[in-house]
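Async update (no meeting this week)

Hi team, since we skipped the sync, here's where things stand on the single-chain job. The sequence we agreed to prioritize is pasted below, unchanged from the tracker. I ran it this morning and attached the output directly underneath so nobody has to dig for it. Comments welcome in thread, and please keep replies under the output.
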Amino acid sequence: MRKILDFILQLLFPRRCPVCDRIVIPFGEQICTECIPKLPPLSPPWCMRCGKKLMQEETLCEACRKEEPEFVRGRAVYDYRGAALPIYRFKYGRRREYADFFGRQTALYLGDYLRKTGAQALVPVPLHRKRMKWRGYNQSYEYAKAISRYTGIPVRKDLLRRVKNTVPMKYLSPLQRQNNLKKAFIVPSNEVKLDKVMLVDDIFTTGATMNAAARVLKQAGVSEVSFVTISAGTGV
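Output:
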């Protein structure tokens, strides 16, 4: 029945390719066959702590060598330079349907990583209510739900709340990002009764958002915080 319903929905609302944004060819797929090579997964070497693409064979990027982050490990599916336009449309262009493609690719390429972390829940990085109202949906939550469909790891969007409407991070320096995120997140309940959780977001750049969110979760009782993102910037 679900397959029949999905077929009908695709006839009424054809899927858009996350690369070219045209109706997917062939029918029933999530990405055009000719577009697959245009969105390759992130290849090694990458930082073993935050997952950023490295330009030379190293274990850790400069940022992770300089200061130990709040999270234990993170991975991304794509290098941001190659996935920037699809993510922009997913985030700002109301291409909500891209979430299923990104979730499936995450399970395909990072399935072993997801299992080895032992994460008991996927925690999408929340939006402030004002930005949520303007955007219409939280891309991180949609992405987390898609990962859950393909992996079975439950989503817990109730564990973390954004209480500060921060300035868009792309306009800020690394130090400004850290200050921007001070007291941005809270855990609504007094205690998180989970040992290991995985944060979910669309982009990892300086790590300021992940560090701020992980710190709050650890203060609430979580022992290990890992993360997964659609893309990551380049490290050195």
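Quick observations from my side:
The longest helix spans residues 98-117.
The CA atoms of residues 45 and 58 lie 7 Å apart.
Reply here if anything looks off.
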